[in-house]
Write a structure and sequence with these properties.
583 residues; globular
């Protein structure tokens, strides 16, 4: 349902945070239209997939409104052993916007509500089973299901203080609740089966009985709230945003479990486990941020960006030993603050060529489970490159990020390299460096137009200093960072409204844990993947388009992840048809 996507890199990203290492992605929701208008986009396809995006809005005098809904469902592409249950999802999302615009001020209120039910699991496949059928799911995961709902409110007030100074104040509040009921500890059966254990394989297949299977309600409630205040000062050669944000959030984790036995391939309920320890805890954080950015046009050719950001984050966690939360099991807290400077420039060599460079301080705070002696992730990030604008657009940017302490945030879905599933893990010093290339043009072939866009990223991500405490060595590859990523978008557009596009994408294999390049096995890596998507669009009229979409045209599947519990595939070939109507 996003209207557009903005990407910021380099020093200007310090206007946003708290994560300031690699870049900022801003997903922009549908704006209120200037006149009464609406859109309906509907798609239906294989595996019971149906997507609907519909909105309507407009303005009357100083007032405007927008109502929008996104409805998505699927039966899923995986088949569960000995079960008629689906492996898909059902998502319902609603947005309302109300706006007012005066001569020098405006007010925008946005409310959003969504709910989701997903028949998803942590349990993947043993490699032998993956090679036979990538889209199989073990019967042990039949009852796994996630239910969640989210509501968010956002109020934005803008005021032109003077002809050159604009103020923006944003207040926001979010609630998110989820209960993911799923098998816990399935990885022990996957690892044993991969090692050739026939009993573990039988348990996965449902031919061997097993007692005491633990299924946990990963039940959590989150709240976040804050106020963001920013002033933009236009001083001619200087564009000067300055502002700050006060933020607080909290999480309530209360996760009871249920026990099942597998008997003759069926799951039989046997009891309940009350939540204690890490399954029964409260976490909270308070944060303050300040920023000042100066975009300075020194000459017609040279633009200089100077940036400074300050982040202060205080977090705490209380863990309880009993369901009634009368007995405190443990307590921890963390307080981190960082000044984050940055500077970058662009220089136009002529009308076609531009060079750029920059450096800024990167920061990523730890989660609520951080201990007092743990430091946040910090880095120094350099970039330099060149751009060409002519019949082609070409950009080449080299980047180098030097981490004084690289951290991982641990969860059941993405365990840290030390196996932890909560808190954070400091992996020590590291360097992530590489090259980004982009090229694009539009070719004219008679009555046909052919847009071409090429993107390639090379990344070298390694531990840069021996860390004997954790068993890491200089040169160990970091987890979940592919070395090569490539995409090519090609189109054929006609003068009579029939347009066709193909997107080819490649992603390299990745380490699942740090150091798989030094003594690891195939079970420590994902596999590389190359897929092609195709879409064909035909304009029935100026306001109506029909389309055909085929994802993964050549039906290529691979192990794209092994976390958390076994091998997982990408989506198989899936075809769908749809219509888009603008009115």
């Amino acid at each position: 349902r996003m209207h557009s996507v903005e990407v910021l890199k380099g020093a200007p990203l310090l206007r946003h945070g708290p994560q300031t290492t690699g870049g900022v992605v801003n997903m922009v929701s549908t704006p209120i239209p200037q006149a009464m208008a609406g859109t309906v986009n509907f798609r239906a396809g294989q595996n019971g997939e149906m997507d609907l995006l519909a909105n309507y809005g407009g303005r009357s005098g100083d007032f405007g409104f927008l109502v929008e809904t996104a409805q998505r469902r699927s039966d899923g592409f995986k088949d569960i052993d000995r079960s008629s249950r689906d492996s898909g999802y059902d998502i319902r999302d609603y947005v309302v916007k109300l706006g007012w615009e005066g001569e020098r001020q405006s007010l925008l209120f946005k409310a959003q509500y969504s709910e989701e039910t997903s028949d998803e699991t942590y349990l993947g496949l043993a490699d032998t089973d993956f090679n036979r059928d990538e889209n199989r799911r073990y019967g042990l995961s039949e009852i796994d299901e996630m239910d969640n709902d989210h509501q968010g409110y956002n109020l934005t007030y803008r005021l032109a203080l003077t002809d050159t100074v604009d103020m923006t104040a944003i207040g926001y509040y979010n609630e998110f609740a989820r209960d993911w009921f799923k098998l816990s500890g399935g990885n022990r059966y996957i690892n044993a089966a991969n090692a050739g254990d026939t009993v573990a394989q039988g348990i996965l297949d449902g031919t061997v009985d097993v007692e005491g299977l633990s299924y946990k309600h990963n039940n959590r409630e989150y709240e976040s709230r804050g106020v963001d205040l920013n002033c933009d000062d236009d001083l001619g050669a200087h564009q000067f945003p300055i502002g700050g944000r006060v933020h607080e959030d909290e999480m309530d984790r209360f996760q009871p479990g249920e026990v099942y036995d597998q008997l003759d391939g069926e799951l039989v309920f046997t009891g309940v486990m009350e939540p204690t320890g890490s399954d029964n805890r409260l976490e909270e954080a308070d944060a303050f941020a300040f920023w000042a950015i100066d975009s300075w046009q020194l000459t017609e050719a040279l633009n200089l960006n100077l940036a400074l950001r300050y982040e202060d984050v205080e977090s705490s966690r209380k863990q309880y030993a009993d369901p009634g939360r009368t007995e405190l099991d443990s307590r921890r807290s963390n307080d981190s603050s960082e000044w984050l400077p940055g500077a970058s420039f662009t220089y136009d060599l002529n009308d076609s060529w531009q060079v750029l460079a920059g450096v800024h301080r990167g920061f990523s705070p730890l989660g609520g489970g951080a201990r007092d002696n743990e430091d946040p992730e910090t880095s120094t990030n350099w970039e330099a490159g060149v751009r060409y604008r002519g019949s082609w657009f070409v950009e080449a940017v080299g980047f180098y990020s030097d981490f004084s302490n690289k951290t991982e945030n641990c969860s059941n879905a993405s365990p840290c390299s030390n196996g932890a599933t909560s808190g954070s893990f400091d992996t020590g010093e590291a360097v992530i460096a590489g090259l980004e290339l982009q090229a694009g043009t539009t070719l004219e072939l008679g009555s046909l137009t052919m847009p071409l866009d090429l993107m390639y990223t090379y990344t070298d991500a390694e531990v840069s200093k021996d860390n004997p405490d954790e068993g890491f060595e200089d040169g160990d590859q970091l987890a979940s960072v592919p070395e090569n990523v490539f995409s090519l978008r090609m189109g054929v557009e006609t003068s009579f409204g029939w347009n066709n596009y193909a997107v080819a994408k490649y992603i390299d294999e990745m380490c699942m844990d740090i150091g798989c390049n030094n003594g690891g096995t195939r079970f420590d890596r994902s596999e590389d993947l190359f897929v092609v998507d195709f879409i064909s669009r035909y304009a029935l009229a100026s306001d109506a388009i029909v389309f055909l979409k085929v994802e993964n045209l050549f039906d290529e599947q691979a192990i794209v992840s092994r976390q958390p519990d076994g091998a997982r595939p990408n989506k198989p070939r899936t075809a769908s048809v749809g219509v888009e109507w603008v009115f």
